[in-house]
Amino acid sequence: MEPGNHTHIPEFILLGLSEEAELQPLLFGLFLSMYLVTFTGNLFIILAIATDSHLHTPMYFFLSNLSFADICFTSTTIPKMLMNIQMQNKVITYEDCITQMYFFLFFAGLDNFLLTVMAYDRFVAICHPLHYTVIMNPRSCGLLLLASWVLSFLHSALNALMVLQLSFCTELEISHFFCELNQVVQLACSDTFLDDLVMYLTTGILGVIPLTGILFSYMKIVSSILKIASAGGKYKAFSTCGSHLSVVSLFYGTALGVYLSSTTVENSRATAIASVMYTVATPMLNPFIYSLRNKDIKQALRKLFS
């Protein structure tokens, strides 16, 4: 195929995590199980918060939105991967690839911003408890959520539009189980300087600024907790943000690990396998982290099941 406009590009090939035929049933069963656990666990968190009036607070409002984002995040990649394995067909059309890329970036960004907003919520609750209800009023919570959605949309739309301007050659194999932005850009036979610039700039901004905000919030939180005289008071204050800190560490630790290693490791298949940690494992573990470490969620789940 000669280089040309994207209208001449019929499809991409997703090579997946392994090309060995005997491993495909194992991968199908493993990822189907992980997807079902992720979907069910996060759905239960949403239902528990929605049905228990005691959980209608800013912290659980943002948690329910995080669970919704996690469901959508995994739903952009895993169903297509399972369908490809089941049908023994690794093809994804150009339009589906761009759509998958857009929604993956959107919900990854939304996860990122929601974790930042939740850190700010814990900062206000612990460092300014007397003003908490005034600062984190319903209008403020709604604006913070709206800002998270708008910024995620702008990030994903900008990168998707940049990819739409590229032309592609004959080599259309993606060494991943979904249309990962960087690998799609690398397949282009037209100049990708501007795309690379936008990609690294937006990824840097979305990585550095929210993470800096989270670290600043927790520096203030730790400083406030250390000033509490009683050990019981310190434990109670820390327990309100322990689950969130665990999720933040898991999300950013795995994501940064994948992208930092991808700059030094040339094996894209190894990077694809490592990316399973933040694209699949982290959304699956989030409901367990919040339910096991939070007595309010436990009680709400018991009410829901009874």
Can you describe this structure?
It is a single chain. With 306 residues, this protein is mostly helical. It has eleven helices and three strands. It has helices at residues 24-51, 58-75, 78-87, 94-127, 132-135, 138-164, 181-186, 193-226, 231-262, 268-292, 295-305; strands at 11-14, 91-93, 173-174. The protein has a three-stranded mixed β-sheet. α4 packs parallel to α8 (193-226). It is globular and about 65 Å long. The model is unreliable at 1-7 (pLDDT under 50).
What is the gist of this entry?
The chain has 306 residues and is an all-alpha fold. It has helices spanning 24-51, 58-75, 78-87, 94-127, 132-135, 138-164, 181-186, 193-226, 231-262, 268-292, 295-305, and strands at 11-14, 91-93, 173-174.
List keywords for this structure.
three-stranded mixed sheet; 306 residues; mainly alpha; Rhopdopsin 7-helix transmembrane proteins; globular
Topology:
Elements: E1 11-14, H1 24-51, H2 58-75, H3 78-87, E2 91-93, H4 94-127, H5 132-135, H6 138-164, E3 173-174, H7 181-186, H8 193-226, H9 231-262, H10 268-292, H11 295-305
Parallel strand pairs: 1-3
Antiparallel strand pairs: 1-2
